[in-house]
Amino acid sequence: MGLVNINGHVYYTHSLRLGKWVTSACLAKGKMTFVMAEMQAELKREQQEERAASEAEQRELVGAYKAARKAERAQEKAWRDRIEGTDRMMRDYYSAVRMAVATYLEGLGFYQHQRNEWRRRGTMLGEAIRYNGMAPLTQKEQLAERAYHGDAAALETCLLEASRHHHETVETALLSYLPLSPGYRDSTEVLMVRMASMRYDLAPPGSSAAEKVLAERATLAWLHTEILENEVAVLYQRTTIDSKRAEILDRRLGRAQNRLIHAMTAIARIRRLNLPVLIQQVNLGHQSGAIQVNGG
Predict the structure, then answer these.
(1) Who contacts 153 (Cβ-Cβ below 8 Å, separation ≥6)?
(2) What is the crossing angle of helices 243-272 and 31-108, to 10°?
(3) What angle do CA 73, 78, 84 make, to 5 degrees?
(4) Are residues 211 and 124 in the same domain?
(5) pLDDT given at position 159
(6) SS3 of 191, please?
(7) Residue 96: Cβ-neighbour burial (10 angstroms; 0-12, 13-18, 19+)
(8) Residue range 16-50, pLDDT digits in tens
(9) Same domain, residue pair 119 and 211
(10) How many other β-carbons are positioned within 10 Å of the β-carbon of residue 219?
(11) How far apart are CA 151 and CA 138, in angstroms?
(12) Residues 102 and 194 in one domain
């Protein structure tokens, strides 16, 4: 479209294609020419403004979508790291307790049969041997020396000290999940009471140190299973189920349930060994090199 001057007359024309030919048609002449030109210019400006606004809105929508997707991916990664990190922590804690209990039993004179059952040796270790070494050893060195010589009290103290750090770390990580979802049947206080009751039932007063450590492990395995079961329940209550999350939770829940079953079985096996109850207690003093043995 444009203004055309022909023989002193101004026309407002626009081009048309007719088959293979291109021709022009007059839209206005005379005074209406300039009016039409202004109208077409105004219309073009409005179209350009609308196009610019539409492009800006589209860019804003695309930016918001990308930001939402980035936040969603970050949330998904945080959730996966939390689930897998807790599972990895439980796995390491489970293995650490198994190794600590095995060391404790070997120190008492047991050995592990090829069918993974613990059996007594022909001659068990005697009573605790008091350490009277001449060299000034540290508290931990004295404790390790006593355990090496078969001191049952030192062995028990070593077992409890070895598992305490892992237990507190894992317990803190699991308790950070509480409270669970609002629709969960038990509150945080009820869960804590149930855990304390479970530890008491699995390792009542008079139980050996190995039973106490294994009871703590079984309690944390139960709490880990409860947390994952709650995650599964929350997932399947949604209108749309994330298949990737469901697959991850299914694998982790299966492992947690297997750990719980194995932990309960381990307590029963250890209980059949009739381990000696602690008759001496090793107290580590606050002073360097101070160690004290109290009779039961």
Answers:
(1) 128, 146, 278, 279, 280, 281, 282, 293
(2) 10
(3) 120
(4) yes
(5) 62
(6) helix
(7) middle
(8) 788 788 888 777 777 777 777 788 888 889 999 99
(9) yes
(10) 25
(11) 17
(12) yes
What amino acid is encoded at 188 in this protein? T
Residues 225 and 111 in one domain: yes
- Give residue 20's Cα distance to chain centre: 71
Q: What whole-number distance in Å separates Cα of residue 223 and Cα of residue 109? A: 33
Residues 164 and 225 in one domain: yes
Q: For tokens 């005697």, name the residue.
A: 126
Distance CA 147, CA 158 (A): 8
Q: Which residue has the tokens 């307590």?
A: 267
- Token reading at 50: 């609308």
- Whether 42 and 166 share a structural domain: no
Q: Could you tell me if 176 and 191 are in contact, meaning their C-beta atoms sit under 8 angstroms apart?
A: no
Contact indicator for 252, 84 with CB cutoff of 8 Å: yes
Report the alpha-carbon angle 150-151-155, nearest 5: 90
pTM of the entire structure?
0.64
The residues near 138 (Cβ < 8 Å, ≥ 6 apart) are: 288, 289
For 139-161, give one letter per residue: b (16+ CB within 10 A) or e: beebbebbbeebbbbbbbbbbbe
Distance from C-alpha of 225 to C-alpha of 254, rounded to nearest angstrom? 9
Residue 64 CA: distances (Å) to CA of 54, 67, 70: 15, 5, 10
Cβ atoms of 155 and 104 within 8 Å: the answer is yes
Taking CA atoms, 79 is separated from 169, 225, 270, in Å, by 19, 17, 37
- pLDDT tens figures, 196-238: 899 899 988 888 888 888 898 899 999 999 889 888 888 888 8
Structure tokens, 265: 């079985």
In a domain, 67, yes or no: no
Amino acid, res. 236 = Y
The count of other CB atoms within 10 Å of the CB of residue 74 is 10
What total of structural domains would you count in the chain?
2
CB 218 within 8 A of CB 246: no
